[in-house]
Amino acid sequence: MADLTLQELTAQTIVAANGLTLKPGQEAFLKPETYTHAEEELDPSGSWPRVVLDGERVVGYVMGSFDADSPEDYLRAALWRIEVAEGAQGMGVGRFAVKAFADEARARGFSRATVVWASGEAGPEKFFKAVGFVVVGQTPYGENLGALEL
User: Fold this and answer.
1) Which DSSP string corresponds to 40-89?
2) pLDDT digits (tens, 9 = 90+) for 59-72
3) What total number of domains does the chain contain?
4) Which of 3, 94, 103, 133 has its CA 20 to 30 A from that of 51?
5) Whole-angstrom Cα distance, residue 37 to residue 12?
6) Largest CA distance in the chain
7) Which domain holds residue 115?
8) Taking the model in full, what pTM does it have?
9) The domain spanning residue 78 has which CATH number?
């Protein structure tokens, strides 16, 4: 996968992004409870949905948000979702997406990016730690709050 590129989510790519097939059990970790409750606080103008392409094929999706004025620190430069197609996992797609999000956060003046995840056997904890996120706390729902210093 040498030809990875990032593209804004469009009418042409949304169907492919919605149709990404994950490994069994991963679907349960797509939306942490904390984000479900915080969604109403999300400023839609700061949302950052992107697809990762390998050539012309959508192999990943990343959704982040940026809101420097959020009263919640973990919502200021937050990685909300990352999905990598089952057949593309372990090939650098997720790392590429996180790096792109971190680069965007840095360009917008943020010094830290955050992500929330639930623990579990098929969960994303190993991945988030491998790309540099460090657990800095827990949410009221018992999920991990990770931070990536930029």
Assistant:
1) GG--GGGEEEEEEEETTEEEEEEEEEE-TT-SSGGGSEEEEEEEE-GGGT
2) 999 999 999 999 88
3) 1
4) 133
5) 30
6) 41
7) 4-149
8) 0.87
9) 3.40.630.30
Count Cβ atoms within 10 A of the Cβ of residue 142 and give its class: 0-12 exposed, 13-18 middle, 19 or more buried: exposed
Of 57, 66, 105, the residue nearest 84 (C-alpha): 57
pLDDT, tens digit, 9 for 90 and up, residues 68-92: 999 889 999 999 989 999 999 999 9
Is 29:124 a contact under the CB 8 Å cutoff?
Answer: yes
Q: Which two tokens stand for residue 26?
A: 């991963």
Structure tokens given for 63: 């959704």
Please tell me the chain's helix, strand, coil percentages from 3-state DSSP, rounded to the nearest 5: 35, 30, 35
Q: What is the mean pLDDT of residues 116-134?
A: 93
